[in-house]
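Ticket #4471: structure export looks truncated?
Reporter: QA, pipeline team
Priority: medium

Steps to reproduce: submit the single chain below to the structure queue and open the exported record.
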Amino acid sequence: MRRIFFWLMLLGLLGACTETHSVDDPGTVLVDWNALDFGQVLVGTRSTQVVTFSNTTGALAEVRVTGSPVGYEVRPSILNVEPGSRFDVEIAFLPAREARFDGVITFSVDDGTDRAEIGIDVRGEGIQRVVEVVEALDFGFVAVGETRTLPLTISSIVEKAITLAVSIEGGADAFVSGSGVVELAGGETRTIDVSFSPSNRGAHTASLRFRSCESCQAVSVRLTGSGGFAHLRSRPPAVTVGTVRPGSSRSATFGIENAGDFPATVSSVTLVGDPERDPTGGLAVPREFSLTGVVVPFEVAPTAIFPMEVVFHAAAQSEPRRYAKVRVMGPNDEVLVEVPVDGRSGGIEVIADPVVVDFGRQPKNFAAKKIFVLQNVGDPVSIQLFPPEEDSNYTVVAADGSPPPWTLGDGPMGVEVTFEGSESQDYPAELVFPIYVNGALSGEQPFLKVEAIATVVDFPPCELDVAQTLRFGAVKVGTSVTLPIDITNRGTSECLVWGLELDPDGSRAFSSTSMPSHSTAVLAPGEKLTVAVRYAPTRTMGVVDSSHLVFNHSNVDTPPTVVPISGLAMGLDLVAEPNPILFGPVPTPLQAFKPFVVRNRGAEAVRITRISIAADGSQRFSARADDQLPLAIAPAASKGFTASYKPLEWTIDHGTIELWLEGIDEPFLVRAKGTAVDDPCELCSWPTAICPAEAQSVMVNSRAVLAGDADSPFGREITCKWQVISAPIGSSARPQGAGCTPSFVPDLVGRYVFELLVTDALGNKGACQHQLTSRPMDAITVETFWDVAGDVDLHLLNEDLGDRRDPNSWFSDPADCYFANCTDGRRPSPLWEGSRAKTAILEENITLGTGPEIIHIEDPSETHSYAIGIHNVSVGGRPVTVTTNVYCARGLAQSVTTEFTESKQFAVIGSIRFGSSTCSFTPDDTVWNGFH
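Actual output as written to the record:
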């Protein structure tokens, strides 16, 4: 900018002098009165120059703008100049139109004593442009790495010759001008080249500037362009025709989308093999695939989608999935895109088990519930099921409480249907489930129809025979005993029983998984319904635990039946073998004898002071100790006893042997059962059941053979049937296979007692018992089971890799062994301590049932501990009790009972550390709600 310096002598009146004074003269001021000439300035822009005021006197002077012509601006408009100092003032020219703007800017100078005025001539011209150019130059899309050059015409609109400096600002060097300087005569027009070379995809902008002098306003041309490329892709990326019924065809449509910036030309579309997914097939095209409706060549514009259709011709029978690719080629034999396709000969088949949901006969206004299972037994396809239309009497929900639509995968899905009717009549219904595959109604099986039927009846009053009480006696804390309550119809007409439940206000130590609380039972005359009740005390209270079994019968107006239930938690650990004692058929008036043993598994001695027969059972049983009473049983020792049964008439007798313990208010109970028969000689011709001579011992989850046999005195044909008499609480294992030698896989650690029942062609029966002990799998074995059907998961955390109280450590790989990384032969990765033997494995993930799940480690580390976690995934609506047994060095180290009150709860029950021959267990009570 041009500066003009005014040397002002602020003495007396300071007038507008016209002379130039010498600076050597202290009484005069040297002033340069050359005008400020701004020249040509573009309209709408501003040009600035600076003047400096210098005060050479000893007084403070105020300088104020008193007049300014249109188009000019002075900043600041008021200033104070200290003695001996200088101050800059900016004068700007801002032309608002194309015209000349000449005038005088006046200032007043006041030193407090005198006042004077001075003026500065200013001149300037507002012009629109010195050159005429386009406002913008758009290169459009240019392929990355390529260059496009466009001409730019520049026309001078002034009379004099000008020299323009050309520069580009912005654009990351994508834009280049062919000339750095352009010289134009007055009114001349020239053309220069401008190039765009994008190095990356996306929009680019820059400004091409022409400046006729350093202080002149630049004329700008906006440069725009986009880097791009041609890119075809498939929508969707892969095409699955799905599972097609054998012998039929199905097509799947997809689109070739131009996701690039330029039109793409397709010269050919062919089917090729897919050796990556099917190495055995190579590039050979599977005969099952074909393309329809493709005419080449064709062009796909940017953002356009070219539709295509692939057809899968299913073989005549189910075959493995076939794989191929649709290869799209460009004009230069360039592969533009490959689309994986697959299909399989087969078909989905969604079935219901049972196919008819029969509620049978129901009372009025009772909400009866039943569960049936839906499963795809065809080829594995992700299926969505929608609930049937609403019915006034039937309501359908998922058994796990999940909202519809429901995804049906490889496993079964439980469905709960509720019926309630108010009138005595039949209620037939058809529950129609729409089936969706890949978001559309399935063409193979659009619907699944499940029949439902119920009949509301009004029965006459029932005559029932039911136990007056259910007494468990003294039971060791941490163990459980299951006993039956038999409800027998002793009347002459059918009886309706429903709404069975345990008193919700009773002790939580009592539970039942066999109780059909939301269903009904119709008992014929003489028929009985058995409800199994479990007593599992968790701590000694010093008082008797109590509850009640409550159920309705006959009709809604009949008062419910109530059966009191009691038990006492004790610290002693006793077990009777066998229990119950089964006498089988005994002729009257003979007496049969059976030995039994009472074993002390606790750490302190037990004293038995008295033996009696419970008054609420049959008095045809008796018992005595082999030693004189009172007798003591040392820890890990046992004592022998003898029970007898002497029937008086044909019947089935049940009795309870009471063993009274010193210091315990309730007895330890041993059950007994016997059947009276009429003919003493009948036993001579009955078949004999032959059980293995020795008890068996196998590893949990391993297969054993129950090697039974039978003998008939007269060579009659005999059938064998094995059944589980007693098993560890939570076990659901059963013999597999028919005949005398089925296999058996114990699912929990502990003792199993079996009965082999043999029946000859005349219906005569014989029985024997056999024991099998299931051992822990490895040095550390953890098993868990629960009492409400649903999904509960077992976790084992390597505490060298994670913190059990940090939620982020769980559900992580490799720290946590759980269903996602630790089943079906998989183990956490990387392996713990780099060894398979030191890495945990989960035997099976149970998603619908009551367990068990087992995690074990063959060679656990002795340098760190392992935390045990239990996750209630889906059991909601009622509390669920989970039992977890921890075995270390083949022995039980800890048994923990955990109660969940809602789904998505996670409990850290404790931490176990392995030693050379034993383990230490540290309890933990960490619980997270709403977890995963």
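Status: closed, not a bug. The export was complete when the record was re-opened. Leaving a note from the reviewer for reference: The first strand starts at residue 3 and ends at 8.
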